[in-house]
Specification:
Helix 1 runs parallel beside helix 2. By secondary structure, the chain is of the alpha/beta class. Strand 2, helix 2 and strand 3 form a beta-alpha-beta unit. Helices cover 37% and strands 15% of the residues.
Amino acid sequence: MKSSLLVMTLNEINGMKAIMPRVDRTWVDQIIVVDGGSTDGTIEWAIENGYQVYVQKERGFRHAYTEVWPLVSGDIVITFSPDGNSIPELIPDLIAKMKEGFDMVIVSRYLKGAKSEDDDIVTGFGNWLFTKTVNLLHGGNYTDVMVIYRAYKKNLVQELGLNRDDAYNLPETLFRTKISWEPLLSVRAAKSRLKVTEIPGDEPARIGGERKLKVIKWGAAYYFQFIRETWFWKSKR
């Protein structure tokens, strides 16, 4: 099973310089830096250091994924934030767990003593609420449904319809924002009874850059999406 690491960036030059030297390139078969249009030297630094770089054309996290997906060669995809929130040394653990036969492995900030140093009262409560809602409505057994840091089989994207605009258009229009596909992946993996597990992993405070979290808009859009999924999509399994 080949593995691809997607490094998601937008003006993360300080984080890239601090975090990427800790990523052993032999851990994975492919590394792609997926950039949202950085103006702080992130793109240039990545190219100078020999990374494959893709600069997305349409704004929004999910569009970054759908645009770069044809370039992904791995059977396993790991989505990773180089802003300091994701601990790179956990990458081999993710791959090893996936090779045990799991469809998805999540690095949970709330499992077995792991902690988030980036949470505040609002985001901590929100993550708890979202996780409880997905578990209740969709039969999940998660401690962390929102986190970007996870590994999953590449073919799940098409199987679960994560690349379809109809899964996002209404919540994005209602709340005037763009959302990502990790929360929806958590929901539809639970609905499909996929083999999913979590490993504990701290979320350190971010390094430099600007926090891009849009708490109210994203929170409302994701919660609407969670509720709509109770009737909107059915698993083919």
